[in-house]
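sorry for the late reply, my laptop died twice this morning and i had to redo everyting from scratch. anyway the thing you sent over, i finally got around to it. pasting the sequence first so we're on the same page, its 253 residues, then the predicted structure underneath. double check i copied it right bc i was rushing
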Amino acid sequence: MARAQQAMLGRAGLDFKDERIALACAFRWAARFDMHESVANHFSIAVDEAGTRFLMNPRGRHFSRIRASDLLLLDAEDTETMARPDTPDPTAWALHGSIHRHVPHARCVLHVHSKNASVLACLADPELPPVDINAMRFWGRMSIDHGFDGMSLDDEAERIARALDDKPILLMRHHGVMVIGETVARTFDDLYYFERACSTYIAALQTGRELGMVSDEVAAKTARQWLDYPEFSDDHFRELQAILDREEPSYRL
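ok and here's the structure:
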């Protein structure tokens, strides 16, 4: 990082600098990959051992403009959060607050209404079959929430938190997708590849021709091979940060 940028971070007195920078990078790339929607959707990362204190984007800020210092530090156990001067978006607070309060293994939570995942979520059969190597990455690693009941407020947010299990992908019928994980890098990589897999599947359906599938055994084997290659996700995210460092270094501020 340039010396001037380091000085600005120091003057801001920011806590959790590394987590802030990583999450800001994820926002910028979600916009670049066209996985954002207006000023909706939110990302968060837990910053304490219990998982209840977390960073999240502020209300009404476009993903392409998010900086490390913009991120709100919130406490899922704080009942006065919606009374603070920098009030977060109410649906984001309800949803991410519920998840960080009830699902400690969901350290990083990325929720978007990306085009192809949302198309899949609209289908009567929203399963993602093993049609290509990217789809096979999520074999046995995706849950589907069929219980949509409106905006993610109050009871709906609590219900979604309860729907999460040990799988990283929750496809939310009629809504979008939520990806959870241990780090920003690995969670964002899952989000990226899930959207890619959905894109290929939707395009294949549009041909109107019969789809070819691999066997369950081959799909499971390929999913395991993806899991045995975790450094791939870290390498991908390191390169994403390097590109931003050259082209949009303001994300670190």
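The chain has one domain: 14-252.
thats about all i looked at so far, will dig more tmrw
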